């Protein structure tokens, strides 16, 4: 456990700078945290699939299992899949709608995630990461950037107009 704890502390210090237990923010009962995640995902026991970058699937599973191991945690099992594969399948589907050329391989759509065009977008991070100038590592910022990426690469395919702040940031609208 100590090796993983030291690794997690080092990762936190060099990226998002969130305080680590025992000084962590929020609820200290990990079972409550896990149950809050489940409640956020669904009001019944029918949980949707979750998506994360393929290289983080094992990390997300490990974190969820760690949270679930605390007293009082629901024993629900969540399915975690590759975000890049979801993007690829959705891009194919939007191209089908308008008979556009589909991406030839998964590697082409994977490159969009590697580039992360919206990485330095300001104003989409949580207050903590805005104050510490670590917005790039903020989960809220990351998920918002993924939404922008999906919108940027798919809305035009199905003739949807982008809405500033919802599907896109100001940069996507030009000066």
Taking all residues together, what is the mean pLDDT?
84
Helix content: 40-55%
- Rg, Å, rounded: 18 Å
What is the N-to-C order of secondary-structure elements (H for helix, E for strand)?
HHEHEHHHH
What form results from the Cα inertia axes?
Answer: globular
Q: How far is it from the N-terminal to the C-terminal residue, by CA?
A: 51 Å
Q: Structural class per helix/strand content?
A: mainly alpha
Can you count the beta strands?
Answer: 2
Q: Looking at the chains present, what oligomeric state does this protein adopt?
A: single chain
* Beta-strand content estimate: under 5%
Which runs of at least 5 residues are low in confidence (pLDDT < 50)?
Answer: none
The strand line-up of the biggest sheet is 1-2
Count of discrete alpha- or pi-helical segments spanning 4 or more residues: 7
Main pleated-sheet profile: 2 strands, parallel
Keywords: Cytoplasm, Differentiation, DNA-binding, Nucleus, Repressor, RNA-mediated gene silencing, Transcription, Transcription regulation
GO molecular function: sequence-specific DNA binding
Domain Maelstrom: 2-167
GO cellular component, one term: nucleus
Any overview of this molecule?
Residues 2-167 form the Maelstrom domain. Keywords: Cytoplasm, Differentiation, DNA-binding, Nucleus, Repressor, RNA-mediated gene silencing, Transcription, Transcription regulation. By secondary structure, the chain is mainly alpha-helical. 47% of the residues lie in helices and 3% in strands. It has seven helices and two strands; from the N terminus they run ααβαβαααα. A two-stranded parallel ribbon has the order 1-2. The model has no long low-confidence stretch (mean pLDDT 84).
């Amino acid at each position: 456990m100590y090796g993983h704890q030291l690794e997690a502390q080092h990762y936190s210090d060099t990226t998002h700078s969130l305080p680590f237990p025992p000084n962590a923010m929020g609820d200290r009962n990990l079972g409550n945290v896990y149950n809050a995640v489940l409640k956020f995902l669904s009001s019944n026991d029918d949980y949707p699939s979750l998506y994360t970058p393929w290289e983080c699937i094992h990390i997300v599973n490990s974190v969820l299992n760690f949270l679930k191991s605390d007293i009082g945690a629901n024993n629900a099992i969540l399915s975690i899949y590759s975000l890049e594969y979801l993007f690829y399948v959705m891009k194919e589907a939007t191209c089908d709608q308008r008979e556009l050329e589909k991406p030839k391989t998964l590697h082409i759509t994977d490159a969009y995630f590697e580039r992360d065009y919206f990485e330095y977008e300001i104003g989409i991070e949580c207050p903590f990461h805005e104050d510490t100038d670590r917005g790039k590592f903020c989960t809220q910022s990351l998920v918002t950037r993924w939404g922008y990426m999906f919108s940027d690469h798919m809305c035009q395919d199905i003739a949807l107009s982008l809405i500033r702040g919802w599907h896109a940031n100001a940069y996507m609208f030009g000066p």
